[in-house]
Amino acid sequence: VSEAAVTAVELATPGLTILAALQREPHGRTVAQLDKRSDPPAPPPEAAFAERMRHRTATTAGRALYKLRQHTVEPVFGIIKEVLGFRRFSLRGLAKVPLEWELVGFAYNCHRLHLLGAALSRVCHRPTPPLDARLSPQRHGNLLQSPFLGAIFLPDPGFRNH
User: Fold this and answer.
1) Which residues 6+ apart lie within 8 Å of 121 measured at CB?
2) At the N or C end, where does the chain have fewer CB atoms within 10 A?
3) What separation, in Å, do the N-terminal and C-terminal C-alpha atoms of the chain show?
């Protein structure tokens, strides 16, 4: 993560604030982390980029936003890598790679729908969500989060044009 890249993206997209982890934190929480604590004081404007970025992820709001990563994109890529076994592209070239990525997305969606179908068949009298809930999905990057289907992977339509 470079200061120039973050600044360029934030200036190009008003209202966007980049949150990037600059250090790795171990899993689990310590007793000190469980205690309620106030947000750290903001660094001065002349502070180094790394210090300013650490402050963004150290605030309560920053931690809450950064934690959303585990609920959106990262589990999908983990499933694609570990369960589906996709770790590298077999095809080469800008025309072929997006096609292969769309096939991976299709395979992920089929896997997801299969698991949802198996879960639904175990529950005899599961109430169907209202139609408006099924038709009002939320989009998070390449994921479509639907109350009815869960996370469905959508390949980036602009990816093919690059």
Assistant:
1) none
2) C
3) 22
Read off the tokens for 139: 């989009």
Q: E strands, the chain, where?
A: 138-140, 143-146, 150-153
What is the pTM (predicted TM-score) of this model? 0.45
Distance of CA 83 to the CA centre of its chain: 18
Question: Rounded CA gap, 64 and 40, in Å?
Answer: 15
Give the model confidence (pLDDT) of 18-68 as tens digits. Answer: 888 887 777 777 777 777 778 889 999 889 888 988 898 888 888 888 877
**φ, ψ for residue 144 (rounded to 5)?**
-110, 110
Q: Which two tokens stand for residue 84?
A: 């589906």
How far is residue 10 CA from its own chain's centroid? 19
Point out which residues pair with 153 in neighbouring strands.
143
Q: How is residue 52 written in tokens?
A: 């300013």
Q: Which residues contact 138 (CB under 8 A, 6 or more apart)?
A: 144, 145, 146
Q: How far is Cα 135 from Cα 131, in angstroms, rounded to an integer?
A: 6
Q: How far apart are CA 153 and CA 133, in angstroms?
A: 19
Quick check: helix, strand or coil at residue 38?
Answer: coil
Pairing of strands 143-146, 138-140: antiparallel
What value, to the nearest 5°, has the Cα angle with vertex 21 and ends 15 and 27?
A: 130
